[in-house]
C-alpha cells in the first residue's frame, strides 16, 4: 500500500514536472542555454544590456496584462520565460499557440485570391516563425498533447503551404526567376526553421529540413534570366541589388534557419559559402557612420535611410564568422532601425547580442575606402572610415521591382548629413510610389525633354542595363565611370557620367548625345535648405554644407536676374515628395541650358565645405577641342582636361590632341602640381590621372605609354593605381624608383628598357 502510494506520488510529481522547463533537455533554436547564460553575464557587467533586458521584461509583462496578443508577442514572451523560468510567460505562449492554430489559414486574403492561390506567402512565413520560436521556448512547459496538437497546426498552416507553393514537384509555382529574391528566403527558410521546431513530433520534418537546406546553394548562386530581364541575385562581392533593406531581410531569413540548424541539429553538416563573409563587407561599405547619432545607409531602391545589416552581421557573428571589423560594425549599428528585430533593443537581438572585443578607439576596417560592385553596378567612395567623413555613392545598374529607374544617379553624405539625396519611397499602395518614387525624376539623373528611363522599367525590368566601370582609388584622385546609355537608349546614344574626386572637389562630368535635338536637364535632390548665391548653389543642413558650381556648358549668372543672362545655366525649382511621407512635397533642382542641342557636356563641381577651411578655387579654361578646369586647393593646383575628340565622334581615328602642350589621346587627363611651380614642366607633375588614354607626352618626353587605353593615377613617388587590359604593358618616363607599387602591391613584372622607360605589366586576372 505504501509502495502504491509512493508510486502515485512520484507519478504525480513526474506529470507535474512535465510542465516545467527542467523536465526535458531541449536543444533550442535561438534561446539556447548558452545564449541565456551569456546574456545573464552581460546583464551583470553592462548597464546598456541590463537596461535593454529590463525594457524587454517590461514589454513581456505588458503582453500578459493585455487583452489581445498576436504571434509576434511570442518573441518577447519566449525571452522572458527562458530568462526567468516563470510559467506565467509560458502559459501565455501556450494560449497564443493554441489560438493561432485554430484557423484555416495564416495567409492574407489578397494572396489567397490570386490564381493559383498563394497559400504560403510572407504573412504565413512571419506567423510560422514567431509561433515556432514560442513553441520551441515553451517546449518544456507544454504537455505531450499540446506539443502534438501545436506541431500539427504549424505543419498544416505554416510548413506545408510554404513547401507546396515553393518546393513541391507536384504543386510549386514559384521560381528563382520570379520570386527568388527576398521572398524565397523568407518563405522557404522559415518553413525550414519551423520544421526544426517540430522535429520531435513530426517524423517527416527531418526530410523537409534536409531538402530546404539543400536549396541554399541554388538560391545564393542564381545566375539570372535573359528572357525575363533578371540579373544574378547576389553580386560576386556580396552585394544585393534590390536595396539594403531587402539585402538585410533576405539574407537574415536564411541565416536564422542556418543558425537554428546549428543549435538544434548540430550533427547535420551545412555547406560553407564563402560569400557569407562578403555580405558583411557589403554592409560595412554601404553604411555611413555618424558621430553620436544613428548611422545611415546608401538608400538606393526601396529601403530606409537608417536600415543596415545589423541582423545579418549579428547572426554571422553567432555562427562563428568573427573579425575585428565585424565587431567594429556591430558596435556602430547595434541600435536603431532593424525590421528583422535583431537590434539590441529587441528580444531576439538581445538574446543574440555577442560578446564583442574591446577595440582601440582608433580602429578602422582594413578595407579600401572605395568599392565597386561590378555585377550589380553600385559603388561607394569615401574620404575615410572616420565618423562624419564624406561618402559618395553611385548606382547605374538594373531597374526592376525594388530597384528604381535611377541609372547614373548618386547621393552624397558629408559632415554627418545626407545632403544630396535619393528621394526614397513610400508605401507600395500609394499611387506616388509608381508614379514618382520609382521613376527617373525622383533621382539625380539626366532628363531629355523631360523624360528619363522608360516608365515601365520598374515593372518589366531594363533590357539594356546600366554599368559602372574603372573605379580608381588613388592617393590623389578617385574616379568612376557610370554608363547609363542602355536604360536611356530610346532617348540618348551616349549617357556617360564620370566622377573625378580631387581633394575637396568632386567633378561630375556628363557626356551626352541624343538622337535628335532637345533639352538636357541635370537633376539635383537635396536635404535641408538650398539657395543660389552667384555662381554657387548651396545645400546646407545644420553645420554641414556643400556648394554646387556649374562649369560647362556655362556657369550660373554671377549676378542680376536670370532673364538678363539667357545664355547662362538655368536653375528651376521642381516639386517632388518626401521620403516615406508622400503627403509632403519637397523641392529639388533642375539645371539646364537655354539651347536645345543634340550633343552637350555638363560639368558640375561639388565643393565639400569643411568649416572655416578655405574653399577650393575653380577656374575654367578651354581650347580647340578641349574643356579645362583648374582647381587650386591646399597648396596645390590640379588641371583637368576633357578631350572632346574622345567622345566617340570619330571612327578609325584616334583622339590625339595637344592641350596646352600636353599630348595625349586620353578622354580625361588631370595633372597636380605644387602651387607656384612652372606647370609646363613634366618633372613638376606630382601625380597625374589618365582616363581612357594610352599615352601622355610633352615635348617628346614620355610620361606614360601603353598599346591599349587604361585608367589610372600615376605618381613620381613610385605608385600607380591602374585599371586596364589584363596583361597590358605600361611604360613610365621615370625609371629611378626605389620601389614600385601597383594597386598597393609590388608589381610582379618590371623592367627598364634602353630608352630609360620603366615598364611593368598589369596582372592577368
TrEMBL record:
<dbReference type="GO" id="GO:0016829">
    <property type="term" value="F:lyase activity"/>
</dbReference>
<dbReference type="InterPro" id="IPR008929">
    <property type="entry name" value="Chondroitin_lyas"/>
</dbReference>
<dbReference type="Pfam" id="PF07940">
    <property type="entry name" value="Hepar_II_III_C"/>
</dbReference>
<keyword id="KW-0732">Signal</keyword>
<dbReference type="GO" id="GO:0042597">
    <property type="term" value="C:periplasmic space"/>
</dbReference>
<protein>
    <recommendedName>
        <fullName>Heparinase II/III-like C-terminal domain-containing protein</fullName>
    </recommendedName>
</protein>
<feature type="domain" description="Heparinase II/III-like C-terminal">
    <location>
        <begin position="369"/>
        <end position="530"/>
    </location>
</feature>
<keyword id="KW-0456">Lyase</keyword>
<dbReference type="InterPro" id="IPR012480">
    <property type="entry name" value="Hepar_II_III_C"/>
</dbReference>
<keyword id="KW-0574">Periplasm</keyword>
